[in-house]
Sequence to fold (394 residues):
Amino acid sequence: MLRRAFHAMGTEVGLLLDAEPSAESELAFAHAEREFERLEAMLSRFRSDSQLSALNRSGVLDAGPDLAALTRLAVEARERTGGLFDPTVHDALVAAGYDRTFDEVLREGHAQPAKACRGQVWIKGSRIELEPGFRLDLGGIAKGYAVDRALARLSLAGPCLVNAGGDLAGRGRLWPVGVETADGELTLGLENGALATSGRDRRRWQRGGHELHHLIDPATGTSAEGEFLRVTVLAPTAVDAEVLAKAAFLGAPVETPAVFVTTDGRTLLKGGIG
Amino acid sequence: MTNHVARLYALVAAVLVFFGAWAAIAAHPWQTRSAAADPRLAALQVREQRLRAESLAVKRIVDRRWATYRAQLALRKREIASVRSQNARTRIAAAALASAPAAPSVRVVTLPPLTITRTS
Fold:
């Protein structure tokens, strides 16, 4: 088993390739890593020179194919989840305190008024236009997109798995994946699909004495509250898994296999797992 | 004797007159005067100046169009490179998708995990 690890998109990325060391495997690793770097430079809201930042500054952009495709996926996901997944949570996230890379976010501070979400996004060809007063945050779905893209490159060299801080996708064989539950670690065998986990147990901080986290409820514009601590969902792609996990965390019914961990310490296996 | 001298003078005078007339005729004095006044030559000169001016204008137009063509060619080459790159990415994605089964699956196993999913 060949492994490669690097830092990208604010998290640790791990690549697994079930193959013998060769020039082909090295090339596949290099292509997959380069894909993460390329997409991060294009889709990060923390980089002033990214295409996403240019769109957020001007409100309209003749975007490249990746940003246009991902924005289209995000808007479709919003429609599919009835608005539970929303790419226009940028200003709500900033108001909540997530206004810089997570490593630099102030752990305590004053509370700011919540910002509205669910802004309009118009896409015509490669042209993206945002409703005035709204900006895009593609953080989670961009990570899923990068996982899918990197997996497509890496799979040319053999069975493989790409894991970007919990958003992961595998192909070509059964991949044992650990999932944190209330009762310890559960191992799921993943075949030709993707798993993503959304929760409030990480990326947390305090504002005005209240604990906040990065999962914004578009209905309120503030950190989501509810009975779940963490949700892990299976989907065909990492993009879909990311969307479904976030929607499930916010209460959407999930028919695919999923692992729910509640705030009161229960673990629920759904969709035929176990 | 007197007649011989007179004839000699007359002969010398005739030779001088002959050469003088020859020189005068060889100088073509009538041509200079008529050429300066020839309207066809003047028209030719005007036409030459007009053609020079027109050729300069045409050269400027050709230079401008050449520069435009080169700029459009460079743009077109960039577009072609972009499309080729996109096509290559699409082929890779299509090949990867073609080799992947449609339905993902997951089940609980007892194997040691190779990786872990946690809140991202």
Notes: The first strand of chain A starts at residue 2 and ends at 8. The domain at 2-270 of chain A is CATH 3.10.520.10 (T-fold). The CA atoms of residues 42 and 224 of chain A lie 28 Å apart.
